[in-house]
């Protein structure tokens, strides 16, 4: 099972928020969020397989290549163990793909989704990067590849903190594990196309940096096609907007979650009242 950490409020009715990091990161990338979120919500942090403190757990469990569904089921397994029936999910970068996959596999367990630096579609530059990565992954040291990708995605000086955070976390990922994760790029295009065509109608807030040049245009398009989807652009921020502008990210995300929790509670009360009235 994945390594995880929880922060629980005394209020047993408090909603759960599950944070999902991206490839090469770990739950530590949420260090600028925890303090604010635990004031309002129960919080669950997970380290994905091969990352953070989960890097040895899954390796012992199985020794073969895996797919996005395998990684998604890892998260659901933690929810089951903790008996979390429903939660709000917050992801960054590739973590948004896993959250979207959770909404496919167990939609009734997803109250809402907050997608930071969401990957909705691969543009030409991203596809070229993936192709080059697959061509050279066995001859070029994997950290060179990761550092190069990080620089392409987060090129500006003010992205340096985010870039270094992810590169330093990626150094903790074994090369064999990196290869397994990189193989997932073969699944990306068909999976993202499917996600684009299917609207879950689950309330979704996209929080994107205005300088997220590779992924922001696709999000601007998708919100015109999907219901219950909203986009908020954070200024002076790149792909990893929760690190570039944590105050803005936290305020916008918490406001959205509070609104969604309130709406869902009122809906539940109305349904309960309607059921009682019918009886």
TrEMBL record:
Domain AB hydrolase-1: 17-251
Coiled coil: none
Gene3D superfamilies from the UniProt entry: alpha/beta hydrolase (3.40.50.1820)
Protein origin, superkingdom: Bacteria
Keyword terms, alphabetized: Hydrolase
Molecular function, one GO term: hydrolase activity
Protein name per UniProt: Alpha/beta hydrolase fold protein
Organism: Chlorobium phaeobacteroides (strain DSM 266 / SMG 266 / 2430)
Lineage of the organism: Bacteria, Pseudomonadati, Chlorobiota, Chlorobiia, Chlorobiales
